[in-house]
Amino acid sequence: MTGSSTQGIKTVLHPVSDLAAAKEVYTALLGAPPQADESYYVGFDVAGQHIGLVPGGAAQGMAAPVAYWHVPDIEAKLAEVTAAGGTLKDPARDVGGGRLVATFTDPDGNVLGLLQDPQA
Questions:
Q1: Residues 46, 40: contact at Cβ < 8 Å?
Q2: At 60, phi and psi to the nearest 5?
Protein backbone atom coordinates (compact mmCIF):
# COMPACT_ATOMS: atom_id res chain seq x y z
CA MET A 1 0.00 0.00 0.00
CA THR A 2 1.38 3.38 -0.95
CA GLY A 3 0.58 6.80 0.42
CA SER A 4 0.62 8.35 3.83
CA SER A 5 -0.60 6.50 6.88
CA THR A 6 -2.99 7.73 9.54
CA GLN A 7 -2.60 7.99 13.28
CA GLY A 8 -6.01 6.38 13.78
CA ILE A 9 -9.37 7.75 14.83
CA LYS A 10 -8.77 10.06 17.76
CA THR A 11 -11.62 12.55 17.32
CA VAL A 12 -15.36 11.98 16.99
CA LEU A 13 -17.72 14.93 16.62
CA HIS A 14 -21.40 14.58 17.50
CA PRO A 15 -24.08 16.98 16.20
CA VAL A 16 -26.38 18.07 19.05
CA SER A 17 -29.55 20.13 19.21
CA ASP A 18 -29.29 21.03 22.93
CA LEU A 19 -25.67 21.66 23.91
CA ALA A 20 -26.32 21.99 27.65
CA ALA A 21 -28.31 18.77 27.85
CA ALA A 22 -25.78 16.87 25.73
CA LYS A 23 -22.90 18.19 27.86
CA GLU A 24 -24.50 16.71 30.99
CA VAL A 25 -24.98 13.30 29.37
CA TYR A 26 -21.46 13.13 27.95
CA THR A 27 -19.95 14.32 31.24
CA ALA A 28 -21.74 11.46 33.00
CA LEU A 29 -20.75 8.96 30.30
CA LEU A 30 -17.07 9.95 30.20
CA GLY A 31 -16.70 10.61 33.93
CA ALA A 32 -14.89 13.90 33.39
CA PRO A 33 -15.80 17.54 32.71
CA PRO A 34 -15.16 19.03 29.27
CA GLN A 35 -11.78 20.63 28.56
CA ALA A 36 -13.33 23.00 26.01
CA ASP A 37 -16.65 24.52 27.05
CA GLU A 38 -17.88 27.24 24.73
CA SER A 39 -21.30 28.18 23.34
CA TYR A 40 -20.18 26.95 19.89
CA TYR A 41 -18.36 23.76 20.93
CA VAL A 42 -17.85 21.44 23.90
CA GLY A 43 -14.90 19.04 23.82
CA PHE A 44 -13.78 16.21 26.07
CA ASP A 45 -10.32 14.62 26.10
CA VAL A 46 -10.65 11.17 27.67
CA ALA A 47 -8.59 7.97 27.27
CA GLY A 48 -6.59 9.34 24.34
CA GLN A 49 -9.67 10.39 22.39
CA HIS A 50 -11.35 13.73 21.77
CA ILE A 51 -15.15 13.74 21.83
CA GLY A 52 -16.72 16.95 20.53
CA LEU A 53 -20.28 18.26 20.69
CA VAL A 54 -21.27 20.55 17.83
CA PRO A 55 -24.48 22.57 18.36
CA GLY A 56 -26.46 22.90 15.17
CA GLY A 57 -24.26 20.26 13.58
CA ALA A 58 -27.21 18.85 11.65
CA ALA A 59 -27.66 22.26 9.98
CA GLN A 60 -23.98 22.09 8.98
CA GLY A 61 -24.51 18.78 7.18
CA MET A 62 -23.65 16.47 10.10
CA ALA A 63 -26.51 13.97 10.05
CA ALA A 64 -24.61 11.59 12.33
CA PRO A 65 -21.38 11.55 14.35
CA VAL A 66 -18.26 11.95 12.23
CA ALA A 67 -15.04 10.12 13.07
CA TYR A 68 -11.87 12.05 12.28
CA TRP A 69 -8.75 10.17 11.23
CA HIS A 70 -5.62 12.05 12.34
CA VAL A 71 -3.09 12.43 9.53
CA PRO A 72 0.27 14.20 9.18
CA ASP A 73 -0.57 15.76 5.78
CA ILE A 74 -4.27 16.47 5.20
CA GLU A 75 -3.90 17.63 1.58
CA ALA A 76 -1.92 14.52 0.60
CA LYS A 77 -4.48 12.24 2.27
CA LEU A 78 -7.40 14.08 0.59
CA ALA A 79 -5.71 13.62 -2.78
CA GLU A 80 -5.15 9.94 -2.02
CA VAL A 81 -8.73 9.16 -0.92
CA THR A 82 -10.34 11.11 -3.75
CA ALA A 83 -8.09 9.37 -6.29
CA ALA A 84 -9.30 6.08 -4.79
CA GLY A 85 -12.98 7.00 -5.27
CA GLY A 86 -13.85 9.17 -2.27
CA THR A 87 -15.68 12.45 -2.87
CA LEU A 88 -14.59 15.71 -1.23
CA LYS A 89 -17.35 17.13 0.98
CA ASP A 90 -15.63 19.99 2.84
CA PRO A 91 -12.08 21.04 1.90
CA ALA A 92 -9.42 21.51 4.56
CA ARG A 93 -10.01 24.52 6.78
CA ASP A 94 -8.36 25.89 9.91
CA VAL A 95 -10.63 25.51 12.94
CA GLY A 96 -8.27 27.37 15.26
CA GLY A 97 -4.67 27.25 16.31
CA GLY A 98 -3.53 25.76 13.01
CA ARG A 99 -5.63 22.58 13.35
CA LEU A 100 -7.00 21.60 9.94
CA VAL A 101 -10.12 19.52 9.31
CA ALA A 102 -11.76 18.24 6.13
CA THR A 103 -14.47 15.73 5.26
CA PHE A 104 -15.10 13.40 2.36
CA THR A 105 -17.59 10.66 1.58
CA ASP A 106 -16.98 7.04 0.71
CA PRO A 107 -18.77 5.45 -2.27
CA ASP A 108 -21.85 4.80 -0.08
CA GLY A 109 -22.11 8.41 1.10
CA ASN A 110 -20.71 7.84 4.60
CA VAL A 111 -18.99 10.98 5.86
CA LEU A 112 -15.40 10.54 7.04
CA GLY A 113 -13.21 13.23 8.55
CA LEU A 114 -9.52 14.03 8.42
CA LEU A 115 -7.69 16.11 11.02
CA GLN A 116 -4.17 17.50 10.90
CA ASP A 117 -2.73 18.97 14.09
CA PRO A 118 -0.48 22.02 13.81
CA GLN A 119 3.09 21.25 12.83
CA ALA A 120 5.39 21.42 15.85
A1: no
A2: -95, 10
Rounded mean pLDDT of the chain?
90
Residue count of the chain, please give it: 120
Q: What is the largest CA-CA distance in the chain?
A: 44
Assigned domain for 13 exists: yes
Q: How many domains does the structure of the chain reveal?
A: 1
- The CATH number of whichever domain residue 103 belongs to comes to 3.10.180.10
Query: Taking the model in full, what pTM does it have?
Result: 0.77
List pLDDT tens digits, range 71-91.
999 999 999 999 999 999 999
Query: What range does the domain containing 27 cover?
Result: 9-116
